[in-house]
Design brief:
Layout: H1 7-22, H2 49-62, H3 67-78, H4 86-96, H5 104-120, H6 126-138, H7 142-154, H8 161-173, H9 177-189, H10 196-208, H11 212-223, H12 233-245, H13 249-261, H14 268-280, H15 284-296, H16 303-315, H17 319-331, H18 338-350, H19 354-366, H20 373-385, H21 389-401, H22 408-420, H23 424-436, H24 443-455, H25 459-471, H26 478-490, H27 494-503, H28 513-525, H29 529-541, H30 548-560, H31 564-576, H32 583-595, H33 599-611, H34 618-630, H35 634-643, H36 653-665, H37 669-681, H38 688-700, H39 704-716, H40 723-736
GO cellular component, one term: mitochondrion
Pfam family, one: PPR_1
Protein name: Pentatricopeptide repeat-containing protein At1g12700, mitochondrial
Length: 737
């Protein structure tokens, strides 16, 4: 029987030809030979051979739990006289090759035992050859598998589709997908009917390397009628799973619809795979719809399905929906595991619902689940977010009592929280506790401490800690140096910050946008604009693109110094670089124009801002209202105030105070008092500034009685009657006298 193979397969056969011609292919192979021991069994000779072989056949069909038991039976068979038939030996060796979990020792042993049979003169049959091909394929020696196929032909047998399926699987196992596809083409040309195993094996291999297009082509080939085999649920599930893993969810859903239209009902694996794909892409609504479809089709979700849905709900802040899914899960008789509980508990913690978190913790223990490190980490994060740091600290102690060892990640959460709350002494206490437990602080731990020290202006202590960090083996990264550079810039030690910047490349680190932004900000704070702009240009020379933050820092600083024209040039440069100015950018520019009393230019800037798509916020409008009031354009300011709610913005105290002050300056006290009453009738409460402005204006107009009523009202609202209020009365009385 002549077999014509593709070029790649020919090379494999050629490589193995020496073994084919040698006649004995077993002992030439680099297998880990299993040493056969002569087991002396006093009762062995008393057992009826027929009964023994019947037992071996039954055990082989049931399968073996371990290799040693199978080899022991095989050894007894080899000591029988006469020897059992090739069929019996093939049966036990075939069963041996299926022992789980699969590992190379099993296949090497089976090959060695076949060698032992050859020495005993036991002949091969087609099934035994196929077992050998399978063993070589799993060991990655597919070339020897082709050698065995040569032996099959030499011994007068015809390779079966099982032989070819095994070889195809072997080629796929060593990532020779192209050769596997060529082999499929060749066997079809030779008249073999590729079956479900053939196509399923190839589809699985193609999906493993992400070749979905070819896998789908094979599926179409099966559907076209060119193959007697039709696609089954396994093949669809394999491709859908691969598409989902590669985040190609739309294609997976298209295939899912096609599968249903062809009368192949999805199973729990199909649905679970799609839910996992939606989980990866955070498509909560689609995942919920998929759950409903499962339930409508009477398919019970597995625990993993529920876990993904609960986790998605919690990450979207929909904790109540997560609770409902947990209720559905328990109602349908599925027991939640620790992953289920951890997801829900994390959801409670993210929403700051710490009482619910503790109730759930008690339920976890009550239901026989043991809280793990993930459970405690979620609780720890929750307490730290709520600034309940004493409870967070106690939680770490509780972990130890439950036999759970806090790790560096656990301690780092606590240290970071203490540092952010400016409780550095407690952070240092945690460090000592951590080191006493034999846990070395890592880079993240040190970065949190350095950030805390820098934010509390303890720069020298931070610099000393950097040395300790290096000596402890925790290599500083760009984040570490950015923290230090920022700290130095905040206290005006720019020269030292620049020294660190200059040393970065020698340390193998590249400055990033954050590095430059903090230095530019430092120079701007010190009003060293030439140096700030020099750093801005240096960024570009070093291949870094200034971002919106960079521009905002410069524009804000320039506007504060009335360098509005230069700031406007930077906005134009932003647009050239396809950066969209944000509301803070325009606020700075509007404020700068306002400070220069260029109110019409400020109004024009507002129009530019709206035209660019950057939505002005209440701060922007407050600047304009204040500016208009300062120059007596109260009608224009009033128009803006009236238009705010139509724009979806609520006036705040600053808005009303600016308007009231404007009316008072123009001696329009009735309008000012009207706005004061509007504040009371709305959701805003007048503050000290509101009262002081009105009292001062009323006193200047000799309306002392009404001014005194406002003072009494301030007292009932527990507002301090500021010195300016008393000064207003004194000033007013002096003027009236």
């Amino acid at each position: 029987m002549a077999i014509i193979l593709g070029v790649g397969v020919k090379q494999i056969v050629a490589k193995a030809s020496a073994y084919i011609n040698g006649g004995n292919i077993i002992h030439r192979l680099p297998t880990s030979v299993f040493h056969l021991h002569s087991i002396s069994d006093s009762a062995e000779n008393d057992v009826d051979p027929k009964f023994f072989l019947k037992s071996v056949r039954q055990q082989s069909k049931l399968g073996f739990r371990n290799l040693e038991d199978a080899v022991s039976l095989f050894n007894r068979m080899t000591r029988m006289n006469p020897l059992p038939s090739p069929f019996d030996f093939t049966l036990i060796l075939s069963s041996m090759a299926k022992i789980k979990p699969r590992h190379s020792d099993i296949y090497s042993t089976v090959i060695s035992l076949y060698g032992h049979l050859e020495m005993l003169g036991v002949s091969h049959n087609l099934r035994s050859f196929n077992v050998l091909v399978n063993c070589y394929s799993y060991l990655g020696h597919v070339d020897f598998g082709f050698s065995v196929m040569g032996k099959i032909i030499k011994n007068g047998y015809h390779p079966s589709i099982v032989t070819f399926n095994t070889l195809i699987n072997g080629l796929i196992h060593i990532d020779l997908l192209e050769q596997a596809s060529k082999l499929l083409d060749q066997i079809v040309k030779l008249g073999f009917q590729a079956n479900h195993v053939t196509y399923g094996t190839l589809i699985k291999g193609l999906c493993r390397i992400g070749n979905h297009a070819t896998a789908l082509t094979l599926l179409l080939t099966m559907q076209s009628g060119l193959s007697l085999s039709k696609p089954d649920i396994f093949m669809y599930n394999t491709i859908i799973d691969s598409l989902c893993k590669n985040k190609l969810l739309p294609q997976a859903l298209t295939l899912f619809s096609e599968m249903k239209s062809k009368g192949i009902p999805p199973d729990v694996l199909t649905y679970n795979t799609l839910v996992r794909g939606m989980y990866t892409l955070r498509q909560w609504d689609d995942a919920k719809d998929m759950l409903n479809e499962m339930l409508e089709n009477n398919i019970d979700p597995i625990v993993e399905t529920y876990n993904m849905l609960i986790d998605m709900c919690c990450k979207h802040g929909k904790v109540r929906e997560a609770e409902a899914i947990l209720g559905l899960m328990t109602k349908r008789g599925d027991a939640p595991d620790i992953i289920t509980y951890n997801s829900l508990l994390d959801g409670f913690c993210m929403c700051g619902q710490m009482d619910e978190s503790f109730d759930l913790m008690n339920l976890i223990v009550k239901n026989g689940c043991m809280p793990d490190i993930v459970t405690y980490t979620s609780l720890l994060n929750g307490f730290c977010k709520c600034k309940k740091l004493d409870k967070a600290f106690d939680l770490v102690q509780d972990m130890r009592l439950r036999g759970l060892a806090p790790d560096v990640f656990t301690y780092s959460i606590l240290i970071n929280a203490f540092c952010k709350d400016n409780k550095l002494q407690f952070a240092c206490q945690v460090i000592q506790d951590m080191e006493a437990q034999g846990i070395t602080p890592d880079r993240v731990t040190y970065n949190s401490l350095l950030d805390g020290l820098c934010k509390s202006s303890q720069i020298d202590e931070a610099m000393a800690m950097l040395k300790g960090m290096t000596s402890s083996g925790a290599a500083p990264d760009i984040v570490t140096y950015n923290i230090l550079i920022d700290g130095l810039c905040q206290v005006g030690r720019l020269e030292e910050a620049m020294d660190i910047l200059s040393s970065l490349r020698a340390k193998g680190l590249d400055p990033d946008n954050y590095t430059y932004n903090v230095i530019i900000n430092g120079y701007c704070k010190c009003k060293k604009f030439d140096q700030a702009l020099g750093m801005f240009h240096d960024m570009h020379l070093r291949g870094l693109k200034a971002n919106v933050v960079t521009y905002n820092i410069l524009i804000h600083a320039l506007c504060k110094e009335n360098k509005v024209q230069l700031a406007d040039q930077l906005i134009q440069k932003m647009k050239v670089q396809n950066l969209t100015p944000e509301a803070p950018t325009y606020i700075s520019l509007t404020d700068g124009v306002y400070n220069m009393s260029l109110i019409d230019e400020a109004m024009a800037m507002l129009k530019k801002m709206i035209a660019s798509g950057a939505a002005p916020d209440i701060v922007t409008y407050n600047i304009l209202i204040d500016g208009l009031c300062q120059v007596g354009r109260l009608e224009d300011a009033g128009d803006i105030l009236t238009s705010l709610r139509a724009k979806g913005l609520d006036p705040d105290n600053y808005t009303y105070n600016a308007m009231i002050n404007g009316y008072c300056k123009c001696k329009k006290l009735d309008q000012a008092l009207g706005l004061f009453h509007d504040m009371h009738n709305g959701v805003l409460e007048p503050d000290v500034v509101t009262y002081s402005t009105l009292i001062d204006a009323l006193c200047k107009e000799n309306r002392f009685e009404f001014a005194n009523q406002l003072v009494q009202k301030m007292k009932t609202q527990n507002l301090t009657t500021a010195t300016v209020t008393n000064d207003s009365f004194i000033g007013g009385l002096c003027e009236s006298s």
